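Subgroup meeting minutes
Present: P.N., E.W., G.H.
Scribe: E.W.

1. P.N. recapped why we're keeping a running log of single-chain structure predictions: easier to compare across weeks, and new members can see raw inputs and outputs side by side.
2. G.H. added today's entry (225 aa).
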Amino acid sequence: MKLRCLAPKAALIVGLGSFFLAASASAGPIFFDTLSSGFVGGSACVPPALGSTCFNSTSGAGATIGFIADPPAAALGNVNYGNFTLVCPTCTTTAGGIGAFFPALTFNLVVHDITDNTFGTFVGTAAAGSVFLDASTMTFNWVPLQLGPGTAGASGGSGSFGTTSFNIILQTRIVNPTSGAQIGSSTVQGSIDDGVVPEPATLGLVGSALLVLGIFRRRILPQAS
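Output recorded in log:
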């Protein structure tokens, strides 16, 4: 008799659990890439392993800053938009006195929001600086710090990010040619938020479900004791 009584309640609890799982899985990843990014006045990388677009030093030792863009990927939360890669084969340490010198640089980090079919651009600027094997003074400062939601930061005239926000950290410091998790590589970091929040009606259903579960718990436990 008790088993027949508990069966409908157990079925309802399982159903409510499925509802919670479905609600928690409603937010999905955003597909994006940064393949259209590049230096203003830059050129194709030589060798191509440095990325798709590069800028060469203008004095001192021969050095190159390249950018390896992110291919199409799905992400939500913290993301990497790509990597700057610095090489200087003939540089020495600061004490050795042989370094490379770059002019002021501008970099357009173009984000393609594939999910919403929209493009937006973070613009990074770096003051003129120097690079040695043990030091680098190159730092990119980004504006804006967010693309979206809606048309904020969208390019191309009619694009919209919908509820999606692409965020970027304020600065990306270019590490020296012998530093970094990957030697000479500096990651452009940020985050993606799809803006999905539970609607009031959904929150009401969740509250009601929790109340029902509490009532069943009080009724079931005395019978089991």
